[in-house]
Design brief:
The complex is a heterodimer of chains A (240) and B (646). Chain A is α/β, with parallel strands linked by helices and 240 residues long. Helix content of chain A is 35%, strand content 27%. Chain A contains 9 helices and 10 strands. Chain A has helices at residues 43-51, 72-78, 95-101, 109-115, 132-145, 162-179, 190-196, 214-219, 221-228; strands spanning 3-14, 17-28, 32-36, 58-63, 66-67, 80-83, 150-154, 182-186, 199-204, 207-213. The longest helix of chain A has 18 residues, at 162-179. The longest helix of chain B has 31 residues, at 2-32. The N and C termini of chain B lie far apart (59 Å). Classes of the chains: A alpha/beta (240), B mainly alpha (646). Chain A: Belongs to the ABC transporter superfamily. Chain A: Residues 5-230 form the ABC transporter domain. Chain A: This is Branched-chain amino acid transport system ATP-binding protein.
Chain lengths: 240, 646
């Protein structure tokens, strides 16, 4: 598997105050890395830094073997796509407009709609009138129309019913396998996230405190729970 | 019937300009979220560029000129250059002003937009020789006869052009990929960038298109509407009224509403010639039409409490509550006494004017800074006070200080009336309502010959227990007795306001400002608090207007015109609209105040005052959204955090 995204000893934050320190992780093509941790651990900050929204105070972020570009839209066009916790869909536009807005040459709209067939029925509906689950589907579909190489997904389950989450999360596994997309997934549903991920990292107080294969962490829930509640760092800043 | 048809078609020219301005405002709002008050000023600039090209062949730029031939330029090349010139100016406005402000509070955007409007309008008389220049026809001068009426073909062409331009803008936003992307970028800039779009570039395209569209119609209509060094700036009001009627969403509805306002004004002109038409309604009623339309539309379309998720539109800079008012008041009193004692003539007049204007700016600090209601009508409230004072002292012989209380009381009532729409209208839309209200009051009352005495609006000087407090004494332009009276009145009112803001009233204001729904949920009567804010603000401005009246001894419409009102808002914002100390700074830099005296008497730059003030406003909005008081306070108190309310 080719390495698509790499964070090396990244420290980042807001107004000069670090929120995450010495973060090192990487994501390969077709791989799902789950990023777990309690509220305020620094997951979203790490994701926003990986997407280029935040500039690291120290350390480097590189995508597809080269440092991130200065402009967000350039990174997006290169295939580094963030699905924010606010979903990043445009409520005043229809589903069709949301999807075609993101299209590039050689788009894969039909393939994406195969993955989310429910959207075919909603193409003319304004996005603001969709349910939360439908909006989340649209957010993923909109991201996939780009033919992304790396997807950064922030708390996709936020505000969704557990049933909807259970239906949506497996589709991320499917798209990683089908399109060879590398995924960095921030998620609060630990079991579900670990069930679809290849690897996982746990953040606490802005530092990675636990890393490992998802299957192993799923089997050792005590280690994850300890990490959630603040175990000592067991991780250096080289990419996990 | 033939007369009605004639006046309907005569309204097409003005209506076309309103329509294209309205369509441009809606388009820009859809693309950038900015409510552009400067759209009329862009039209003004284009009209004068073309007039100068057709007069001398010189292309006038905001800075410098380019001679393009030895004589006048032909009509269509000049019109083309005029359109390009305005498009470039609009693009510059986007790049230099609105792009840096894209994440700023709506108030900062409104203020920058007003600043740009004033800056362009004040540049016109400085850059063009506006005396005796005519706008020769560009379109055909042919006429046709229909239903017994002679109709100008040019009016029909203008109607068709406005409709076509609006339809083109609408189609661009609705059906083209760039247009859809532009709407997406306006809704959520970050999401658009994460989608691979460049909202900046898309917004720039929209500024170019709307600038060109507005200029095209205004330039074609100018020969019909005539050349005026400032008039086109106010075309933005009917344009904004039409845009608000369309709820800032439908370009075609905005266009049709603009046309309808133009036609309605023309019909009112016809009605005013009829015998039974009241004398008081013969002037200014047409200008009041947009205000009435805006108020009716917004009250019908608005909501008493904002919808869920709509609260972001009233985000404002942080407020810092005064911490040591009494020592500060002592220092300021001593400084005022010193300034009055050490000055004379125009300098003392400047000091006194600054103190009065600080009171009017304080009315804005209360209403806009603390209560979050963006009002552009402060000078209309002041004017109401001033003009009632004239009647009170000359016709009704009401003695001082009852005359001031009576006049400020009437201003308070007007404030409550203008504030009624605020119960359902918020943010930049309220700014439009209050500006339209200010223009309506100015044209229908202050400038109405039927309401002005033959000898003008004279004001008798104040006396108290036989003590003469009049402003002039022989050659003394401003007596120390009058200056002391002003200091006492302003000082007492300012301290009362500080006490009020520090108590429950201030907390209620801030609660409403922060979140109307949350304020209502804890038992605050939002409607009552808003009306109380308008009443307090109008009372302060009304007293300020009375003091201006006493200081001038005679009032004209120019004393309180809308431009002065906008300048005061500019000054209040530059000073720091969320701080009481900001009002003081606003007073110092207000029209005819200390800074103006310095520029006019010492540096000889009085002609550039409005331009300098407008540019300062735009710069402050871009660089320092909390104003000078906020900026300096931030520097002084960096080590000792103050009580700050978000």
């Amino acid at each position: 598997m080719t390495e698509m995204l790499r964070l090396d000893a990244v420290t980042a934050g807001y107004a000069g105050i670090p929120a995450v320190r010495d973060i090192g992780l990487s994501v390969a093509s077709g791989e799902i890395v789950a990023m777990l941790g309690p509220n305020g651990a620094g997951k979203t900050t790490t994701l926003r830094t990986a997407a280029g929204i935040l500039t690291p105070m120290t350390g480097t972020v590189s995508a597809f073997g080269r440092p991130l570009r200065r402009r967000l839209e350039q990174n997006a066009r290169a295939g580094l796509v963030l699905v924010p916790d606010t979903r990043g869909v445009f409520h005043s536009l229809t589903v069709r407009e949301n999807l075609t807005l993101a299209r590039r040459r050689n788009d894969n709209l039909d393939e994406v709609l195969d993955l989310f067939p429910a959207l075919r029925e909603l193409m003319g509906r304004r996005c603001g009138r969709l349910s939360g689950g439908e909006q989340q589907m649209l957010a993923l579909a909109k991201a996939l129309v780009h033919r992304p190489r790396v997807l950064l997904i922030d708390e996709m389950s936020m505000g969704l019913a557990p049933v909807a989450v259970q239906a949506l999360l497996p589709s991320i596994r499917a798209l990683a396998d089908r399109f060879s997309v590398g995924v960095l997934l921030v998620e609060q549903h630990i079991d579900l996230a670990l069930s679809i991920a290849d690897r996982a990292v746990v953040l606490h107080h802005g530092r990675i405190v636990l890393t490992g294969p998802a299957a192993e962490l799923r089997a050792d829930r005590n280690a994850v729970a300890e990490a959630y509640f603040g175990a000592s760092p067991t991780h250096d800043s080289s990419p996990a | 019937m033939d007369q009605v048809l004639l006046f309907i078609t005569l309204g097409f020219a003005g209506g076309a300009v309103y329509a294209v301005i309205a369509a441009s405002i809606v388009s820009l709002h859809a693309a950038t979220g900015v409510l552009n008050f400067a759209q009329g000023s862009l039209a003004l600039w284009g009209v004068w560029v073309v007039a100068e090209l057709r007069h001398s062949g010189t292309l006038v730029l905001p800075v410098g000129s380019i001679p393009l031939g030895s004589g006048p330029m032909a009509a269509w090349p000049a019109a083309g250059l005029g359109v390009l010139s305005v498009a470039a100016l609009a693009l510059a406005a986007h790049l230099l002003v609105f792009r840096p402000l894209r994440t700023a509070p709506p108030l900062a955007q409104v203020v920058a937009s007003v600043g740009l409007m004033l800056a362009i309008a004040s540049l016109v008389p400085l850059r063009f020789s506006t005396e005796g220049v005519l706008a020769p026809p560009i379109l055909t001068e042919r006429t046709l006869e229909a239903a017994g009426t002679v109709i100008n073909v040019s009016d029909l062409i203008l109607l068709a052009t406005a409709l076509t331009v609006a339809a083109a803008l609408s189609a661009y936003l609705r059906f083209t990929r760039w247009g859809v992307a532009t709407r997406a970028g306006a809704e959520d800039e970050l999401a658009a960038r994460l989608t691979g779009l460049s909202p900046d570039r898309l917004a720039a395209v929209m500024w170019l298109l709307t600038g060109a569209a507005t200029a095209l119609v205004a330039i074609l209509a100018a020969p019909t509407l005539g050349l005026d060094p400032i008039g086109y700036m106010f075309y933005v009001l009917p344009g904004l009224a039409a845009a608000l009627l369309a709820r800032l969403t439908s370009i075609m509805v905005a266009c049709l509403a603009g046309l309808a306002i133009g036609v309605l004004q023309s019909i009112l002109l016809l009605l005013s010639t009829f015998d039974g038409w009241p004398v008081w309604a013969q002037a200014g009623l047409g200008d009041a039409v947009p205000f009435v339309i805006v108020v009716v539309a917004l009250v019908i379309l608005g909501r008493r409490l904002p919808a869920r998720g709509a609260l972001g539109t009233v985000r404002m800079p942080a407020v810092a509550l005064p911490t040591r008012p009494w020592p500060t008041a002592g220092v300021l009193l001593a400084a005022a006494a010193l300034a009055i004692g050490l000055t004379s003539g125009s300098w003392r007049f400047g000091v006194v004017t600054s103190i009065i204007m600080a009171l009017i700016a304080l009315s804005l600090v209360v209403l806009t800074g603390y209560l979050g209601q963006i009002s552009l009508a402060s000078m209309a409230f002041a004017g109401t006070g001033g003009f009632i004072l004239s009647r009170a002292t000359m016709a009704w012989n009401v003695p001082f200080p009852l005359s001031v209380l009576l006049s400020a009381g009437v201003a308070t009532l007007v404030g409550v009336l203008v504030g009624l729409p605020a119960l359902r209208v918020r943010g930049a839309q309220l700014a439009v309502v209050t500006l339209a209200g200010a223009v309506a009051v100015q044209q229908a009352a202050f400038a109405n010959p039927a309401l002005t005495p033959f000898e003008g609006n004279l004001i008798d000087g104040p006396t108290l227990f036989g003590w003469d407090l009049a402003v002039r004494d022989g050659t003394d332009l401003t007596t120390s007795a009058f200056a002391a009276t002003v200091v006492v009145i302003v000082g007492v009112l300012a301290m009362a306001v500080v006490r009020l803001l520090a108590g429950f009233t201030g907390q209620s204001f801030l609660a409403v400002r922060s979140n109307e729904r949350a304020a209502a949920s804890v038992g605050i009567d939002v409607a009552r608090v808003k009306l109380a804010g308008f009443a307090l603000s109008a009372f302060l401005a009304g007293v300020g207007g009375c003091l201006i009246g006493y200081s001038r001894s005679q009032l004209s419409v120019e004393s309180f015109n809308v431009i002065v009102g906008l300048s005061v808002l500019c000054m209040a914002y530059v000073g720091g609209i969320t701080r009481v100390s900001g009002a003081l700074i606003a007073g110092l830099i207000a029209p005819l105040g200390v800074l103006y005296t310095l520029l006019n008497t010492t540096l000889g730059l009085g002609h550039y005052y409005t331009l300098i003030a407008a540019c300062a406003l735009v710069l402050t909005a871009v660089l320092n959204p909390v104003g000078i008081a906020g900026g300096t306070s931030g520097l002084l108190h960096r080590r000792t955090p103050r009580k700050v309310v978000l």
